[in-house]
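Action item from last week, closing it out:
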Amino acid sequence: MLTLAVLILLGVVAWLLAERNARYFALIYEDGMLSVKKGILFPVGRTSFKTDDPAFAQAYAPLKPPPSAKVIEERTFDDRAGLDQALYELLARWAREDIATEQPEAMERALSWIARADKLPNISAVQREDLRNLRAESGYFEARQLLDRSADALRQARERLRLTAASSSPHAGDASDVLRQVDLMVDEVSRAARLLASESTRPPDTAGAQPPAAPEPGAAAATAGGGAQ
């Protein structure tokens, strides 16, 4: 009876340890990649975390941190919410650092960090608000890139239309008509792109500190007359 009681007790302890191990998550940094691991239903052991939901698969896929990022080799969490919130803090910080550079390559990477962060289902309400602000900030620079690309594409289309309009092609007349419209579009899109670029490099507005207004001529004369008496 004593032996049986000890075996039952050991079995209960092993089950509790296995259940606890199956609930925990970990962020592991190895071989230059940051991976999400999940405990298995056994007292010890873990495996790569995989989900059947394709919407979440990208959020938990292994990722390569930026070269300058400092990443802790291993962090463990008691539940998925803790994992999501820690992942968000990393992705948001990397995105802000990339956005601050205003470099096209870094901006593309920042947008990928934001896209991953947006797929995390268990971030906090504060982090959700921070994500909206981050999207608004990145959207400004993303719009600049899209305008630049649109202007380049329109210029290429204009050159093609010019070639067609100057040829004996049966489409020469149509190309000539469209060319006039494309010329206007190129000018408008290029102007908008230059405006965004100039706004991003403009120093902070100091128009609030206005110099004192000059006195009116009548008031100045009255003051001078009073001083002469």
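Closing note: The two ends are 122 Å apart (CA to CA).
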